[in-house]
Design a protein that fits this description.
Layout lengths: L7 H34 L2 H20 L10 H17 L3 H7 L13
């Protein structure tokens, strides 16, 4: 009897891992442009919804006793980043909102989640 191992799932994982930098680069470009557009076009209702979503996220993280297994402190850093982006959106500062998400402009790089 032959010993056989299905390596299909492993090959799939390796391929996804290989594509991750490309996915993160695309995500960074999209998030940067979306933050810029949000700062230019947001309504008061949309700002209220963004603030509410950030509040829920803050409560969820505060209520959780778990930290990111990969990087302790990451949830609080991410929340701080989101608050800064939201502040720029609320102030109608598209360049600042985009810059907060653009590592080339001094912002924080997009992290894999």
């Amino acid at each position: 009897m032959r010993n056989s191992l299905d390596i299909g799932p492993v090959e799939g994982m390796v391929e996804r891992r290989r594509r991750l930098p490309d996915v993160l680069e695309a995500r960074e470009a999209l998030e940067t442009k979306l933050a810029e557009l949000a700062a230019e076009r947001r309504t008061e209702d949309e700002l209220a919804a963004m603030r509410s979503a950030l509040g829920v996220l803050t409560e969820e993280i505060a209520g959780s006793r778990t930290e990111s297994l990969r990087e302790p402190g990451r949830p609080s850093r991410s929340l701080s980043r989101y608050r800064t982006v939201l502040d720029a959106i609320a102030a109608g500062q598209p360049r600042q909102a985009a810059a907060e998400l653009d590592p080339g402009a001094g912002g924080q790089p997009v992290e894999a989640t």
